[in-house]
Amino acid sequence: MKGKATSFDIAHLAGVSQSTVSRALRGSPLVSEETRRRIQSAADTLNYKVDKNASNLRRQHTGTLALLLFEDPTADDSHINPFFLSMLGSITRASAQQGYDLLISFQQFSRDWHADFAGCQKADGLILLGYGDYQSHRDKLEKLVAQGTRFVRWGAVLPGQPGVSIGCDNFEGGRTATAHLIGQGCRRVAFLGDATPHYPEFHERYRGYADALRAAGLEVDEALQADAETTERAGYEAAELLLERGVSFDAVFAASDLIAIGALRALAERGLAVPGDVALAGFDDIPMASFVNPALTTVRQDTGKAGEVLVEQLLRLIRGDGAESAMLPAELKVRRSSLRR
Amino acid sequence: MKGKATSFDIAHLAGVSQSTVSRALRGSPLVSEETRRRIQSAADTLNYKVDKNASNLRRQHTGTLALLLFEDPTADDSHINPFFLSMLGSITRASAQQGYDLLISFQQFSRDWHADFAGCQKADGLILLGYGDYQSHRDKLEKLVAQGTRFVRWGAVLPGQPGVSIGCDNFEGGRTATAHLIGQGCRRVAFLGDATPHYPEFHERYRGYADALRAAGLEVDEALQADAETTERAGYEAAELLLERGVSFDAVFAASDLIAIGALRALAERGLAVPGDVALAGFDDIPMASFVNPALTTVRQDTGKAGEVLVEQLLRLIRGDGAESAMLPAELKVRRSSLRR
DNA sequence: CTGAAAGCGCTTACAG
DNA sequence: CTGAAAGCGCTTACAG
C-alpha cells in the first residue's frame, strides 16, 4: 500500500474540490445528495479516514476525555484498587456512548500532573479519580480552575471545593452501615480507615459512623479507630493494631471493602469468628465482596451511575452549559458478615 | 486567562525565533545552553505546553497507543471481565512507562472496528484484547496486516496467524491443571468452556486437558464437556447442564475462573461439596479466585508481564524493529478447591 | 450548492 | 548555533 489517502485524493477521484469533500464527510447540509454519494463512494474505495490530528488542530478540539487515575505510591502496585477498575470500566463505557475517546493516564499525587494535561490539547476535559491527601491535592485543583481547564473529580462532595465534584453520600453510607451493626446488637463498633479531613471521603464515612453511635446513645471511642489506606494489607495491619491495643469490640466498620477483607483475615488468624465474635461491614461493594467468606456486608457505590454522571457533567462543562457537583446515593448491602441473629 | 500561549508567544518573550523555541523544547542539541535556558524560563512563565495536535500532525505520529477491548455482546454488561481489567491496568502502566498515552476503546466483535483505527492517526499502534469467535475475527486481522497497521493481539499463539500474537501457554496450563486433578485421585474430570477452534484459547486449554487425560490412561468423554463463555452465569449454566445429563464426574476443570466460580455455585446448590465430592480448578487467577470459598485452584496468567510484553512488541513494530509472537508461561496455583487429600 | 484561500500550531529541511 | 519558510491535513469563513 502507498501512503495514506488525503481529502485531496478523494476530491480528485470524485471530481470536486477538497473543501466539498470535507463538508460532505462532516455531514454538512450544504452538499447535494448526489455529490455526497459520489464523495462517499470515493472515500470508501480509497479507504479514506479523516486525519484526527489535522481535524482536531483545525477545530481546536480533540474529541477525547482524559482520565487521570491517582494511586497512592505506597499501595502495592500489583493491582489497581478494584473499585477504581470498576469506575474505569464504567467511565470508558459512558465516554464511548457520548462519542468520546478516553485517554487513560496514571498519575502520582506528588507529580506536577495539573500542568501536564491542561492546555496541551490532548483532551477536551479531565476526569480525576483517586484517593489521597486532599490538602495537597487542593492547590492543584485551584490552579486547574484558574487555568480554565474543564474537569470533574470523583470524591467527597463538600461545600467550598474547587471545581465540580461527584461522589456518593459517604456520610449517609457510614451512618447506615453503623446503624445496621448497632441494630445487630453490637455496642463496641470499631472504625478502620483514616479519619481526618485530609481524606474527606473516609472522614465523611467516619462522621456518619460517629453520628450513628451517638444516635444510639453510644460513646465514640478514639481507641476504636485505626488508620488505613485502601489496601488489604493496610486493613490487616489496622485490625492487628486494634487487637494489640487490647480494646474490646464486637463489630468493625471498615472504610473500604479492601480494608474489611484485610481485617477479616487478621480476625480469622486470631481465631475470632465473623460475624459470631465480630460483625463486619465494608464500603464500595467491589466484586470480591460477595465472594469472601462470610460474604461481606457493605455500602454499595453505584459505579455504573457514577461513570455516567461524571462524563455527563464534564460534557456540560465542555459545552459551556455549566455543571454542578452531585452526590449519589449509597446503598447498604447486607450479607452474612454482619448478621448475628 | 487569555488564550493559550503558542511557540510564537514564547519566541517573542525570549527574543528568539519560533523555530528555535521549537528546537529548544524538543531538546535539540543545536541550541546553545544559554538560549535554551531563556526559552525554558519564558515557557514556564507563560505556562506553555506544546500543542499535541499540531506536533503530531507535523511529525505524523501520535505518541499514543490504542487498546481495543472486545467484549462479547452477550456478556452481562455490568462488569468487564476481571481478567481484562487486570490486563488493562498492566497495559496502562507499561505504556506510561514507555512514554505513550493509552487510548481505550470498547469494541463489539461485529462492528467494523478494523477500519476505525487504521490510518486515522489516533494512535501509532493497536493492542487487541478480548475473546470471541476467532474465525470472524481473522478476516479483520488480515485486513489490518494488509493495510500496514501496527498491532499486537492477546490470544492464542498458533502457527499461521496474521500479525503478532502474545498469549500464555494455554495448552500447558490446561495440561498441568488436569494432571493435578488426576493426581488428586480424580478419574472423571469434566471440562467447562467452549472447546472448538473458534475459541482458540479455550481450545488449547481443552487440548491440554485431553492430553493429560490420555497420558493417565483415561478416556476423553464428550459427555463431560459443556460449552461456556467467560461469565459466572455461563459457568453456572454449564455446570447445571452437566448435572442434568446425569453423567458422573469427580472433578471440573473450568476454562476460566469466572466459569469455575459459576460452577461452584451450581455445585453448592445441588449439595455437592468442593473439593470433597468434586475437585475444581479454573484458569486466569483473577483476584476473586483466592477469595471464594473454598479458594480456587487455578492457572495463573501473569498479567503484569503480559502487558509489558504486549507494549514492548508493539513499540518494536512501530519502530520498525520487527516483532515476534510469544508465549508466556502459565503457572498452576494450587488452592483448597482441588485438594482432596 | 461549490471552490479558492487562509490558517490551526507546530517541525524540519534549507540557508546562513 | 539561529532564522525564514514550507508544509503536515484538515475546516471554514468568504465569495460566487
From TrEMBL, chains A, B:
Keyword check for DNA-binding: yes
Lineage top rank: taxon: Bacteria
Signal peptide range: none
Start and end residues of each HTH lacI-type domain: 5-59
Keywords attached to this entry: DNA-binding, Transcription, Transcription regulation
Organism: Rhodanobacter geophilus
Pfam families to which the protein is assigned, alphabetical: LacI (PF00356), Peripla_BP_3 (PF13377)
Protein name: LacI family DNA-binding transcriptional regulator
Family annotation (CDD domains): HTH_LacI, PBP1_CelR
